[in-house]
Amino acid sequence: MLAMNYRGPYRVRAEQKSAPYIEHPGDAIIRVNRACICGSDLHLYHGLVPDTRVGTTFGHEFTGVVEEIGSEVQNLKVGDQVLVPFNVFCGSCYFCQRELYSNCHSVNPEASAIGGIYGYSHSTGGYDGGQAEYVRVPMADVGPTVIPADLDLDDAVLLTDASPTGYQAAEMGDIREGETVVVFGAGPVGIFAAKSAWLLGAGRVIVVDHVDYRLEFVKNFAQCEIVNFKEVKDMAVHIKKMTDWMGADVCIDAVGCEAAGNFAQSLTGIKLKLQGGSATVLHRCINTVRKGGKVSIVGVYGPTFNAIPIGNAVNKGLTLRMNQASVKRHLPRLIEHIQAGRIKPSEIITHRMPLEEVADAYHMFSSKLDNCIKTVLVPPRSIASN
Ligand SMILES: NC(=O)c1ccc[n+]([C@@H]2O[C@H](COP(=O)([O-])OP(=O)(O)OC[C@H]3O[C@@H](n4cnc5c(N)ncnc54)[C@H](O)[C@@H]3O)[C@@H](O)[C@H]2O)c1
Ligand SMILES: [Zn+2]
Ligand SMILES: [Zn+2]
What we know:
The chain has 12 helices and 17 strands. With 386 residues, it is of the alpha/beta class. 27% of the residues lie in helices and 23% in strands. β11 (204-209), α6 and β12 form a beta-alpha-beta unit. α7 (235-242) packs parallel to α9 (280-288). It is globular. Residues 38, 40, 60-61, 86, 161 line the site of one zinc ion. The site of one zinc ion has 8 residues, from α2.
C-alpha cells in the first residue's frame, strides 16, 4: 500500500510498504479516506520527538471505512464509516474508567509517562498512523466511532483531534460567564479553543499569533479580537492594558514547544535541546493571566524544563491544567454542536492533497505557505469510494 514514510528530520515521502493485517482478534483494519496533518506532526517532522524511527508512518487524524475486523470485534462491521480518535486506549484501565483516555495505562510500554497515539513515535507506543491507505486500529471496539449519516466527512475528520483538543483547552480553563480568555496560537487547535471559549461562556476572546493570515482567519471564524505579538513589546503589559490592568481570567497555550518570539528560549529549547522546547508561551500565559486566574495548556512539550516562572504562578495563586486531549469524551457534545449548526469544523480546511504529495504537504504546512491552516491528505484508493 501507499503510505507516508519518515526518513529523518524534514524528510518524508510517500512510499509503498506492506499493508497492515489483523494481529489480534480485537483489531480492525481501516481503509483511510481522509488523513490530516496536525501541528503535533510538525514536532515529529522537525526531529524534536524522542524515538521517532525512520520508516514509520505518521498520522493520528483520520477517517475511513472498516475493511476487516478481528473475531472479537462487536461494535463495528465491515463497511462502516468511522472516525478514529487520535488516542489509542483500552477503555477499561483505571484512567480510562475516569475518561482520561489520553492517559490510558495499557497501550504503551512508557505508559507511566504518556498514553498511546497513532503515528506518533515509539515514545507513544510505536503505532503506525493513518497517513496511509490502510491502518491497523487496535481495541477497535473502544476508539472508533461510527460517523452519523448526516455528518460531513470533512467535519468528522476534524473530530479526531483539532476540534476536541481546542474544546478541552477551553474546558480546562474553567471559564466562568463573561470571563476574558486569551488564546496563544492561531493554528487549528487555537482556532477551535477560541470558538469553544464562546460556547463555554466567555465574554471576551483574544487570540495571539504572529502569522497574519491565521489571525485574520480566526478573527472571522471565531469572532474574536486578535494581537500580532511581533507588534507588541511586552505581552503581559499589552493584555493588561486591554483588560483594565487586571490581566486575562484564562490563558490557553495552544502553541507548545516550538513557540517563537524569544531568542534565548528558541536557542536553548529548540536548537540546542537543553530543555523540552521553547517555554515562551508558558511564560506569557503565567505572566499575562490575572492573580487567581487559570492557565490551560494543550500545546505539546518535551518532559523537562528549567526556565518556567513557577514562582510567579505560586505567588499569583494560579490554577494550571494540562493534558493531551481525551477525544472520545468530547464527541457526543461536539457532534451535537455540529448538527445544531453552531460549529462547522471543516471550514478550517484550506488544502486537500493526494497522499502521493505528502512531502509537499508537510513542507507547506511547516513553512506556513499558501495560507495553509489545515491539510487533508487523500489516499489514492479512497477517491472513488469517498
Ligand atoms: N494536547 C493535545 O491533545 C494536542 C492535540 C493536538 C495538538 N496539540 C498541540 O497543540 C499545538 C498547536 O497545534 P496546531 O495544530 O494548532 O499547530 P500549528 O503549528 O498549526 O499552530 C501553532 C501556531 O502557534 C503560533 N505561534 C508560534 N509561536 C507563538 C507565540 N509565541 N505566541 C502565539 N502564537 C505562536 C504559530 O505561528 C502557529 O500559527 C501544538 O503544540 C500541537 O502539538 C496538542
Ligand atoms: Zn494532533
Ligand atoms: Zn486504558
